[in-house]
Design brief:
Helices cover about 75% and strands about 0% of the residues. The chain is elongated, with a radius of gyration of 19 Å.
Length: about 190
């Protein structure tokens, strides 16, 4: 007998909370095991939201490699990753000092037919700054402009930081000038 949709949604919500609690307590292996056991339950298989929640929690706790594995698991289980999935794994990789992998994941979005959002671009530029990849940061800043998304101070500051770390002060000044043209308020990072 199938479980009513309301009960199923409540189960998934409480399951997500259980997974978060396990991760916060540093029991990430148990959290992932719990997710896999949900698959065995049949009617209560995890969905996109459960995966995204788990990936985000893992990333915040520093388990970038497990977040990447779950993104792969989604594909194997035919759950289509969305922009939140990719951005969460990218953030996990960036926080885990894996900026190259974060950028690789951003590049995998187009073939997967997932459109980046402002968070995706922000995480990607942050990864560039971390790795002193100023040219890539400027390219992503340009992509953001072409995407019709409104770049914010975080995006521009990340590009400035990447230029600064790459010892490209002239490029950093040019990006700062673009911020003024866009009428964005600068922050302490912009002026550092």
């Amino acid at each position: 007998m199938p479980v009513p949709a309301r009960c199923s949604q409540e189960f998934l919500k409480s399951s997500g909370q259980q997974i978060s609690l396990l991760i916060k307590q540093r029991h990430w292996a148990r959290a992932v095991n719990f997710l896999h056991k949900m698959w065995q339950a049949g009617d209560q298989a995890p969905n996109l939201i459960t995966y995204n929640h788990t990936i985000s929690s893992l990333g915040k706790a520093g388990y970038w490699n497990t977040a990447v594995e779950l993104l792969d698991d989604m594909s194997r289980r035919q759950i289509k990753a969305d922009v939140v999935s990719y951005s969460s794994v990218m953030r996990a990789c960036s926080l885990g000092q894996q900026p190259g992998l974060a950028l690789q994941l951003k590049n995998e979005m187009a073939p997967s037919r997932v459109t980046p959002d402002i968070v995706t671009y922000s995480v990607a530029i942050g990864a560039c700054a971390q790795s002193q990849l100023w040219e890539a940061a400027l390219s992503i800043l340009e992509q953001t402009s072409r995407s019709k998304l409104r770049s914010d101070v975080v995006i521009y500051s990340g590009a400035i930081s990447a230029c600064d770390r790459g010892l490209q002060w002239q490029q950093a000044l040019q990006v700062l000038g673009e911020m003024f043209v866009q009428k964005l308020r600068t922050n302490i990072v912009s002026h550092a």
